[in-house]
Amino acid sequence: MKACLSIEATEQYFNELFSEQSDYIAKSLMIGGAEIRLFYFDTLIDYSLVQEYILQPLLLRPNDAIQDVVSILDYTETDRLEDAGQAIMFGKAILLRKGENKLYLLGVDLKKERSINIPTNERVLRGPNEAFIENLDTNLNLMRKLISSKDFIVRTYTIGRLSQTKVAVMYIKSIANMAIIEELHKRLSSIDIDYVEAPGFIDELIREKKYSLFPQLLFTERPDRARSYLMEGKAVISTAGSPDAIILPVTFWSFFQSPDDYHSSWFLGTAFRFLRICCFFITIGLPAFYVSVNAFNPQLLPINFVNTLQSSVTNVTFPPVFEALSMILMLEILREATIRLASPIGQTIGVVGGIVIGTVVVQSNLVSNTMVIVAALTGLASFIMPSYEMSSAVRLLSYPALILSSLFGLLGLVFFFMVICIHLCQMNTMGIPYYSPPFSLNDAKDTLFRAPIWSMRKRPGETAPSNHTRLRNPRSWKR
Hints:
This protein is α+β, with helices and mostly antiparallel strands. It has three domains: 7-107, no CATH class; 136-250, no CATH class; 262-432, no CATH class. 45% of the residues lie in helices and 13% in strands. The protein is built from 16 helices and twelve strands. A hairpin with a 5-residue loop joins β6 and β7 (165-172). The longest helix has 30 residues, at 266-295. It is elongated, with a radius of gyration of 29 Å. The mean pLDDT is 84.
């Protein structure tokens, strides 16, 4: 630990530390007969702030103490050169006056950020239209405005030896399970990595099942959604440089919940929730079911449907399993093409490509008409899920289901769903069962269906919140 020395020794230390940095500046000034040095990166500071809040006040009151003259809220003092060097890299200007054995760390960093915009991946028909951005302070500001309570706690960490990425953990002290918060603190504190590029890094470093396809943390770009999970006793992680926040711990059912469910009537919310869960099974099992029925178990279908199915595959070149694989792969290619291209071009490619490919492959007898319908329904079912991570996992799971069905028929598909169920039951997130069956009435109110708000008096029990009561007398007006 190097202590602050003379001006010359301090400047020599910084010059050696930043000798290869072309944007490092050491400026010498004479104010009121005293020599003053400023050290900073000119690409990180705001010159107008330096001029208005540092230099002009010093020129007016050159003999007063620095802390009485400089009018900057982000103001700290240190006598350690290592701390000052770190502060320079974070965009602060370091001020040193001759004759003083103290360094002044002044927050004059240049803030360049995009404005708060509407969510792009979690759009809703009703509700707020604010989304997180890449600036962590702005994200925390959004959350503070939504939760004006002294129990709303923000704990910050610095992760990454080189990147020094700022990470914030948010929770509500009076509701959250503190055992989970301490476990999260232990896992974050144990991360030793050069840099953190995105929340996905943290997801992989703190998750329990490293090789599971199923997402174990929920990503969101919506502050209102983060608030709703905080109110259930969960924690939210936000990282500097990313517009996505992580919600944990979550269960399997959390990935089928959407903010739209709570901005419409509970009848509609329940119907849409049930539809998403049905689409989970359709995405995984429909192509596999088509192959098994077509090749192994046609007796499971009505005779008229079997005749129609058989007539559609009579002149098809490839067996059903290759039909299904080729069409699902074609859907993935079209999907990737529409994402990577510019928005207007991507939409055109998606529509035109789907129509052209579907028409050509049927007319060429490469696939059957029924398989085109199955592939289209499978693709639409995967897009209905609110979570991109769950949607991607389900699409990948359809491939092993298809292989097993092509080898063992319907028995292979049933076996695959049994393996998935066993795997889900074995998973935990932060010590909480990932697949908590909604057997109790209180837990089922916001899993398989969305119960009326006035009936959800208790918080979900999966995270064991310290305060279970959410509503006390919601309809006291009714006598």
